[in-house]
Amino acid sequence: MILHCVFCKIAPNAAWGDVNAVFEGLAQLCETLDGAVSFKAGPNRDFEEKSKDFKAGFVIHFQDQDALEAYANHPTHTALGQRLCDLTDGGASGIMVFDIDSPSGT
Q1: 75, part of any domain
Q2: How many CA atoms lie within 13 A of 55 on its CB side?
Q3: Residue 106 domain-assigned?
Q4: Fewer CB atoms inside 10 A, N or C side of the chain?
Q5: Block means of pLDDT (10 residues each) for the chain, length 106 residues?
Q6: pTM tops 0.90
């Protein structure tokens, strides 16, 4: 399993409805892709006060690296990714991505 974790510095002037629309689009895309196991998104509650700049994010569980690559190369992902960049403070620099290799699926 690959855990594709994306954390976003949402721009102060970005509308949350627009952010949620991107997340919903990504969730719909994942429903159509082989090897995309689950999609979860939402606001960062930052209970430990360690990530205050990152206001929202999402995690996608992929069956394997091939499934992640299919997602990454999909034109819908490219378009939604650009929309997300437009909503972040710093564009692409306002997005942090972790791809965690979790062989056991945990």
Answers
A1: yes
A2: 15
A3: no
A4: C
A5: 97 97 98 97 96 97 97 98 98 97 74
A6: yes
